[in-house]
Structures are given as structure tokens and as C-alpha cells.
Amino acid sequence: MAGPSRPPCLGGRLTGILELPSRIESLADAARARVDRLLDVRPISGQTDPPASLEPWLTDTFGSADAVRGQSMLRVTNLATLEATVFAPLRSHRPIDGPDHARDLAAEIAATEGDPFCDPVHGTPADTFGRVRGARMVSGANAALADAHHAVLVFDEHDPLAFDAALIADLFATGRAWADRARSEDPEASNYLLVWNCLWRAGGSIVHGHAQALLGRGAHHARVERVRRDAELYRASHEADLASDLVDVHRDLGLTVDHDGISVLSHLVPVKERELLVIAPPGTDERDPTFGAAVARALLAYRDRLGVRSFNLALWRPPLATDDATVPGWDAFPTMVRIVDRGDPFTRPSDIGAMELYGTPIVGSDPYDVVAGLRDA
Ligand SMILES: [Zn+2]
């Protein structure tokens, strides 16, 4: 990925995102104004003073001692949502004290065959209304509920990385069919969330491929509700639509891939490494084939081009019943999927530390490298 203009001390990493301020400077006035109302972009520089005895190790680890002496970072803040990220180029070079990364993930996955999800009818409880069967998966009730209705959607394939576009389409269809069945027994439950934790780094307790669907009453899940509120405040402050600005800013800065009116964004404010947002216009049904195809292309690029093995995915959409006039903004809320890389399954340290929980997430991957991987797919 390294071009001739990239400083060799960074090994080709992150210079793309560090060039963001100059990309913004070169935008036309309207696009520049849109960036300015949505984002705060702040270059950060720092210096260190390493002893000579440390230089060989610094050279081995980070490419040179000078790369550690003078460092450039960038903090990007979404002013509407207050999501923020520090892009720190040297973080991805940090030495990891752990087991051999060359261990065979496929063998590790195969070794767990015979788990409860290999026989979901006997290995999981059913919902009181029974099970929903899709083309490539079957529902069970989560044995430890996290909402009034909480399903596991157990894939026929044991290997969680053996997904394809048809499985992604089936996931959206089966999840929604399950939610509709649950709503027929509990019509007041309309807050629907579909999530997928792939492998243990992402919080998956069972290796076998599966996602989860939740349906409950009351306000929507807090992270979704937060964005609805932020978008309403943004509309009041700027007379602009938050989701449209988010897409347009990423497009103007070269960070989107578009498929049939659906945009895949290499997020400028990633919650952690390589976050993608798949954004469709408000009112888009997640079962729309073009939406499923866009999510599938993103996930296949993740697995096959970017080498991601463990990820979290969430479908964010308005409640299934949005006729409550006291809650404005759902009609303008996009249908979207968020996907984030959780790192090497054999790396011992968690990718989530105190900074991610209580400060500002630190990210070592470059959104421009991520979007290049999407474009090649
Ligand atoms: Zn299994």
C-alpha cells in the first residue's frame, strides 16, 4: 500500500488518514462546510527521548528510532454524536506477548465440532411459539435471555467463517421472521436488534456460526436511541440530515463504496479497528436484496481481502412499529449495519481497554487502507 510519498518510518501505515486535514482543505466550499459542521479533526504531535540502548529494539519493532522520537496522530470527533477516535500509527506495531499467531484457526474451529449448536433442536431451548426455520439456519431461544424475546439464529454450518451472500440474506430474512412471530404474541414489543459476534474475540461464547436477535418493549436500545436524538438535534441546529451528511462527508473524502443507492463507509470515527457502516435510505427494509448484497460484499471483503476473522455486526433500524407520534425522527432514521474488526483470534490482550471504555478509542488501522480493500472486492 505504501506509495513513494509515504514516510518509510511508518511502513506505509496511516499516512492516508494523517493526510485528512489537507484533503479537507482542498474540498469545495459546500463540502468543506459539511465537514466542518459534522467533524472536528485535530492533528496531534508528540515527542519521546529514547536511550541509545533501546534503539535496536525500536528499529526492529517500529521501523526506526526516529519513528518513536517524533510521532503524528490525529483525533477525529463526530460533533453530533460525540463519537471520537485517536488514529495512532505506531499502535499497530506494538509488541504482543502471547502465543504463536500461526496456530491454525481452521483446526481450532474444527476441534469444537459437536458443540450444542451442531444439534440446535436438542442443544437450545425453543421459543414458546416454536422455532423459525430459514434456508440456512434455525432459531432457538437464548438460554440466558437479555430481553423479553432473545433468539439465537444458529447457522447450519459449524464454521462461523463459512458465510456467503446467500447466508447474509437468509440471516436478515430469518431474523425478521422470528421477530414477526414474537410480535404476534407480544405486539407491544417492537424494538428489534440483530447482532452477530463472530468468534471469541468478539464475545462469542460458542464457536459455531450464529447470530442473535432481540425484541423488547419500551425505548429502543440505548445506542440506537442516542443516534435518533442526536440526529434530531443536528436537524434543529443545522437544518441538515445527519445520516446524509455522514454519507456525503465520507464520499467527499474518498471513503465510500456505493452499491445501488446503498453506501459502505470506511468510518472516519471507528469504534475500533476497520469499522464499516453500511447505510441505506430511511424506510429500506433490511430484507431488500440490494441491502443484503451490500452487507455481504462488505463482509466478504472483510474476510477475504482484509483478513478479518473476528468481528461484531449490528443491524440498526427503527422500531418495527413507529406510529408513536411522540417520538420524532424514526422516519428519517436510516437502515444501517455497523461492523467492526476485533483482531487476531490468537492475540492475548483484549483490543478494548480503559481508553475504549472511558476515554477515546485508539485505532491503528487506516480507513484509507480499509476502503482500498473494499474497492478491490
Ligand atoms: Zn457446531
Layout: helices, strands, pairs:
Blueprint: H1 15-18, H2 20-25, H3 29-38, E1 39-47, H4 55-62, H5 66-69, E2 70-78, E3 84-87, H6 105-110, H7 120-123, E4 137-141, E5 149-155, H8 165-185, E6 191-198, E7 210-216, H9 222-238, H10 242-252, E8 256-259, E9 262-266, E10 276-280, H11 289-304, E11 311-316, E12 335-341, H12 354-358, E13 362-363, H13 367-376
Parallel strand pairs: 3-13
Antiparallel strand pairs: 1-2, 2-3, 4-5, 5-7, 6-7, 6-11, 8-9, 9-10, 10-12, 11-12
Class from helix and strand fractions:
alpha+beta
Q: From the structure provided, what is the oligomeric state, counting identical versus distinct chains?
A: single chain
User: Per DSSP, what share of the residues sits in E-state strands of 2 or more residues?
Assistant: 15-25%
Summarize the helix and strand pattern as letters: HHHEHHEEHHEEHEEHHEEEHEEHEH
Strand order of the largest sheet: 4-5-7-6-11-12-10-9-8
Description:
With 377 residues, the protein is an alpha+beta fold. It contains 13 helices and 13 strands. The protein has helices spanning 15-18, 20-25, 29-38, 55-62, 66-69, 105-110, 120-123, 165-185, 222-238, 242-252, 289-304, 354-358, 367-376, and strands spanning 39-47, 70-78, 84-87, 137-141, 149-155, 191-198, 210-216, 256-259, 262-266, 276-280, 311-316, 335-341, 362-363. Helix 3 (29-38) packs across helix 10 and helix 8 crosses helix 11. The chain is globular. Bound molecules: zinc ion (ZN). Zinc ion (ZN) binds next to loops. Zinc ion binds at residues 113, 115, 117-118, 158, 208.
